[in-house]
Amino acid sequence: MSKNIEEEKMKAQLSKYGKIYINYSSSDCDGGHSGGSHTFNSIEELYEWEKVRAEWADGPFGWQITEPNETQEEYTYFTR
């Protein structure tokens, strides 16, 4: 998804809910997988969070905008 489309979705959520809702997931090189949801008060706050998370992630990391009633519970599991 392009950055412009994502930002339009973020703006729509800020207008509708006053927050941005995302689900995220990550994996590490040791077989650990985790995820959860997070809320943000601004687009800048989300991008700062993404930058910090991406810097310390040692495997795939991603997030997607979601509706408030579709946020996921925090989870962690290992495949090794």
How many E strands?
Answer: 4
Counting helices, strands and paired strands, the structural category is alpha+beta
Structurally, how many domains make up the residues?
1
Strand percentage: 25-35%
Low-pLDDT stretches = none
CA-CA gap between termini: 32 Å
Share of helix, binned: 25-40%
| Main beta-sheet strand count, sense and barrel state | 4 strands, antiparallel
* Average pLDDT reading: 91
Structure report:
By secondary structure, the protein is α+β, with helices and mostly antiparallel strands. It has two helices and four strands. The protein has one domain (3-78). A four-stranded antiparallel beta sheet has the order 3-1-2-4. A hairpin with a 4-residue loop joins strand 1 and strand 2. The chain is globular, with a radius of gyration of 13 Å.
Topology:
Layout: H1 3-17, E1 20-27, E2 32-40, H2 43-56, E3 61-65, E4 75-78
Antiparallel strand pairs: 1-2, 1-3, 2-4
Features of this protein?
single chain, 80 residues, alpha+beta, four-stranded antiparallel sheet, 2 helices, 4 strands, globular
Short description:
With 80 residues, this protein is α+β, with helices and mostly antiparallel strands.
